[in-house]
Every structure is written in C-alpha cells, then in structure tokens.
C-alpha cells in the first residue's frame, strides 16, 4: 500500500490486517509511549483545506506517537491565499523533506489528484475529499463495531441514517461493511438526501426510520451537512428531527445493546437526541478514541 485514498476495492484481508495492527497499537496509542523510534527522522504534514477537529488532531498525535516530526500546515495563513495551487503547495513542502501528507479537501477526487502529482517516495492519506471518501473514519468505525460486536460481521444488521447524499463517511463505511461481509446493511433518510444505486447497491433502503431501526445491532447516525446543501434542499430542522432524528423512543426499537454511532461533529437535537448521544449505548467517544490507533496503523503500514 503506497497511499490510502479510499476503501473502495480494498480487499477484506487488508482491511482486517489494518484493524489488527490498530488493535496491537492500542496500548501505545493511549499511553503515548514506546514507539518513538519507529519512524523517527520522517516527517508528516497535515494539509487540510477544510476544517476538522477529530481527524486532524488524531493524525497529528498518531504521527507524533510514531516518532515522526509533524508539520501542522495552516492553509488559512499560507500562500494558497495568494493563489498558490494545492499541488504547488504540496511540492513546496515535499522539497522541505515531508515524507507523508494527510490531506483533506472539499472536492471529490482532489486528494487522489495530489497523490498522482507527488514524488514517487511520498505517501498520501486521504483525510476526506468532498463527499467521496473518508477511509480512516471507515476503518475506525469498523474497529469500534468489531470490538463490541465481534469479528463475524455476517451476524450484524447495521443501519446508516441521515444525510447519506453528502456523506463521505457513509461511502467509506459502506465499502468496509460490504468488504467485511456485513449480514444486512440498511440505509434511511429523506428521499432528497439519499444517493443513487451506484452508492447504495446491496442496501435495504427505508424511508420510515421506525421501521429502519427495528432490530438493528448498530445505528450510524450522520450529520445533516447543511454547508454542502443548495438552497431548497435544507429541510426544516424540527421536521427533520421528528422524521429522522434518533430519539430514545426510536433507539428502544433497535436490538438490545445496539450501538449508537456518529462520526462527529454532531448536531444535537437535529439528527440525534443529546441524551442518546451521551447515553449508555453510545460509542461515539470510543470511535474518537479509536481514531488514534487506526491512524497510527495506517501511517505505520504506509511508512513501512
Ligand atoms: N469525523 C470527522 O471527520 O470529524 P472532523 O471533521 O472533526 O475531522
């Protein structure tokens, strides 16, 4: 593996290997000790053309835990504001000795284009491009599911609900769930926020959330991405919560012990009730915590 740009087409064995590697790195991820020699002398750069809290911070910590020098490039105060292109920015930083770029960009395919323009020895990880892919989120979601529900995904029914149209997390989760042989994948959302069959093939599509959540082992709730919506697409927030919000009553319809998941950031009271997000079935902060070993595992696999 030279770059990690998408989970689409990644063999199940490689996904499992990355999850196993993340499990092995868990003690080092959270203790913050023990692996400082592993990639010492190598340099990682987070190059984010879109905002982030979780992904950017956990990549910074992950690279630091592995002994790398970490350059947290601030696009907002950079010469991109003078018109320098993203590729010229990457090549400039590459000339300073950056070995690994972690890139987030608003445009679908932009990270793959930058990877194609990078020098042969440079590694690139996609930290989210447009609505296309967020592969490390997909991996950390699978790790969280596997830790709590076991490695046999064929026994699981997983629901992905909300604004799937704009969600790169949904696309990466779908690729991973299919690769790992998930028993049943359900999706539910407003008709105008569901993508087509090219994304949802093999999924059971529901318009009624009460039916969709009945008996599921996990519900992955998605943020309503209003910043990506054209005027007219944005639903009434009250109506959205009424029809597609995860309330305590709706959660009671899921299987006993069902997991509540959300990639964050959350809109409390819009796609998820605050008490459900903080409740005993929520693994939302466990997902965040798993971001660190997963990102260490991916960096470790790419850096060799
Ligand atoms: N889940 C996720 O990508 O969160 P951030 O936008 O905060 O990185």
From TrEMBL:
One of its GO terms (molecular function) is amino acid binding. L-aspartate binds at residues 82, 168, 223. Pathway: Pyrimidine metabolism; UMP biosynthesis via de novo pathway; (S)-dihydroorotate from bicarbonate: step 2/3. It catalyses: carbamoyl phosphate + L-aspartate = N-carbamoyl-L-aspartate + phosphate + H(+). Gene3D superfamilies: Aspartate/ornithine carbamoyltransferase (3.40.50.1370). GO terms for biological process: 'de novo' pyrimidine nucleobase biosynthetic process; 'de novo' UMP biosynthetic process; amino acid metabolic process. Keywords: Pyrimidine biosynthesis, Transferase. Its EC number is 2.1.3.2. The keyword Isomerase does not apply. Residues 2-147 form the Aspartate/ornithine carbamoyltransferase carbamoyl-P binding domain. GO terms for cellular component: cytosol. SUPFAM superfamilies: Aspartate/ornithine carbamoyltransferase. Carbamoyl phosphate binds at residues 54-55, 104, 134, 137, 264-265. InterPro entries: Asp/Orn_carbamoyltranf_P-bd (IPR006132), Asp/Orn_carbamoylTrfase (IPR006130), Asp/Orn_carbamoylTrfase_sf (IPR036901), Asp_carbamoyltransf (IPR002082), Asp_carbamoyltransf_Asp/Orn-bd (IPR006131). Residues 156-301 form the Aspartate/ornithine carbamoyltransferase Asp/Orn-binding domain. Belongs to the aspartate/ornithine carbamoyltransferase superfamily. ATCase family. Heterododecamer (2C3:3R2) of six catalytic PyrB chains organized as two trimers (C3), and six regulatory PyrI chains organized as three dimers (R2). HAMAP family: Asp_carb_tr. PANTHER family: ASPARTATE CARBAMOYLTRANSFERASE, ORNITHINE CARBAMOYLTRANSFERASE, MITOCHONDRIAL. Catalyzes the condensation of carbamoyl phosphate and aspartate to form carbamoyl aspartate and inorganic phosphate, the committed step in the de novo pyrimidine nucleotide biosynthesis pathway. This is Aspartate carbamoyltransferase. It comes from Arenimonas malthae CC-JY-1.
């Amino acid at each position: 593996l030279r770059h990690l740009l998408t989970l689409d087409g990644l063999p199940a064995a490689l996904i499992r290997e990355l999850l196993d590697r993340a499990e092995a790195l868990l003690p080092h991820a959270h203790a913050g000790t023990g692996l400082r020699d592993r990639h010492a002398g190598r340099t990682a750069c987070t190059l984010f053309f879109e905002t982030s809290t979780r992904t950017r911070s956990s990549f910074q910590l992950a690279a630091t835990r592995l002994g790398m020098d970490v350059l947290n490039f601030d696009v907002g105060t950079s010469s991109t504001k003078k018109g320098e292109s993203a590729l010229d920015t990457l090549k400039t930083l590459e000339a300073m000795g950056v070995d690994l770029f972690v890139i987030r960009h608003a445009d679908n395919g932009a990270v793959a284009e930058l990877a194609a323009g990078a020098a042969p020895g440079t590694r690139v990880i996609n930290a989210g491009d447009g609505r296309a892919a967020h592969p490390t989120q997909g991996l950390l979601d699978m790790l969280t599911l596997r830790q709590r529900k076991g490695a046999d995904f064929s026994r699981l029914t997983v629901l992905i609900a909300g604004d799937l149209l704009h969600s790169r997390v949904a696309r990466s989760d779908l690729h991973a769930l299919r690769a790992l042989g998930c028993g049943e994948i359900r999706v539910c959302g407003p008709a105008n926020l569901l993508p087509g069959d090219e994304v949802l093939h093999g999924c059971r599509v529901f318009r009624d959330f009460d039916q969709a959540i009945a008996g599921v082992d996990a519900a992955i709730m998605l943020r309503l991405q209003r910043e990506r919506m054209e005027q007219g697409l944005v639903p009434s927030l009250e109506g959205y919560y009424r029809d597609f919000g995860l309330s305590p009553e709706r959660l009671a319809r899921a299987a006993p012990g069902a997991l509540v998941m959300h990639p964050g950031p959350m809109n409390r009271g819009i796609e998820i009730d605050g008490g459900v997000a903080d409740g005993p079935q929520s693994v939302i902060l466990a997902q965040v915590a798993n971001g660190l070993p997963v990102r260490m595992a991916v960096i470790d696999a790419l850096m060799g």
